[in-house]
Amino acid sequence: MTKPNVFSGVQPTGNIHLGNYIGAMKQFVDLQDEMNCTYCIVDMHSITLPQDPKQLKETTLDVAALYMAVGIDPAKATIFVQSTVPQHAELSWILTCHSYTGELSRMTQFKDKSRGSESAPTGLFTYPILMAADILLYDTKYVPVGNDQKQHIELTRDLAERFNNRYGETFVMPEYKGITVGARIMALDDPTKKMSKSAENIHSRISLLDEPGKVKKSIMRATTDSDSVIRFDPAGKPGISNLLSIYSVFTGKKIDEIVAQYEGSGYGQFKKDLVEIVNNYLAPIQEKYYDIRQSDELIRVLKEGTEKASAVAERTMKRVREKVGFINI
Ligand code: TYM
């Protein structure tokens, strides 16, 4: 039996954090043995907001190295950079012509990032179409992402269905693949907001490359409530519940087990233990990261990834061009 196709991507905007890891990248690793996985560094999505070109090149390679450092094995999964496969832009345009401004206006991420400004970049508005193109090019069945991307997957499904209805079966219908614990990791300083790469306060997040001292500070000053009872209650106790999710993912223990373990002890001991757990978890990832980042292997892996991804993307585009009536000469 052929393995189902999996596709996902991460923007190379630096500060890859525990939310990105738990919500998405950890799943990437977990799926690579059973499925046919393709993981992209989506640099074209990054330029929907202004980027420093020199830095973008560096952060693109940083994320590629992080993919491998967290355990994505290029022998099992394809790793490549979005802009090196121009079919993404090509399909994105064709899908743009089949999308409605109304459905794009309803995207919450666009509303958050543009804040109603007339000068929001058009790319920010059409960003979910490029994401749909990413997914549909690879006949993707499952898209492992955090739950902030769920709405974009819904739009992708709508576009695929619309296209298939109009031109006949062309695209595979993709599905959101989320996790139960940690699909939305919250900011440490304000657990009502999601952890994000761009928040000003560096203690709102833990980046995968943070030093132990920084991790300690961020966790020890994480916002919790004042009753100091350790209980999982995301609505009533969002701060401690968020820390419990991180603890659970990094130890493999069930939330109930952790709650029982800390019955009667306050937040202080729990946070101290969590600091150690997070630092021990990140240490080997960081060691591997610095090795890979400096090696020639990285570029070799990315070149091979581009070749593999291009072959699949071109196969899909041949089908799509034919369907929409573009001549083949
Ligand atoms: P990006 O780069 O913002 O985030 C990368 C992945 O991390 C997840 N994530 C989180 N998960 C849990 N808690 C959080 N606080 C948190 N913050 C981020 C995101 O859900 C995502 O899975 N549009 C995408 C990138 C993309 C893509 C694609 C994904 C482009 N094309 C095709 C899948 C398929 C984005 O901006 O992710």
Description:
The two termini are 36 Å apart. The model has no long low-confidence stretch (mean pLDDT 96). The protein folds into 2 domains: 5-182 and 296-324, Rossmann fold; 202-290, Tyrosyl-Transfer RNA Synthetase (Orthogonal Bundle), CATH 1.10.240. It has helices at residues 18-31, 43-46, 53-69, 87-96, 101-105, 108-114, 122-137, 150-167, 212-220, 238-251, 255-261, 267-294, 297-324, and strands at residues 5-10, 36-41, 78-81, 142-144, 175-177. The protein has 13 helices and 5 strands. The protein has 329 residues and is mainly alpha-helical. The structure holds tryptophanyl-5'AMP. Tryptophanyl-5'AMP binds next to β1, α1 and α7.
General form: globular
Report how far the terminal alpha carbons are from each other.
36 Å
The CATH superfamily of the largest domain is HUPs
Taking pLDDT < 50 over at least 5 consecutive residues as the criterion, the unreliable ranges are none
Task: Report on the biggest sheet.
Answer: 3 strands, parallel
Tell me the β content: 5-15%
Brief overview:
The protein is mostly helical and 329 residues long. The chain has helices at 18-31, 43-46, 53-69, 87-96, 101-105, 108-114, 122-137, 150-167, 212-220, 238-251, 255-261, 267-294, 297-324; strands at residues 5-10, 36-41, 78-81, 142-144, 175-177. The radius of gyration is 21 Å and the shape is globular.
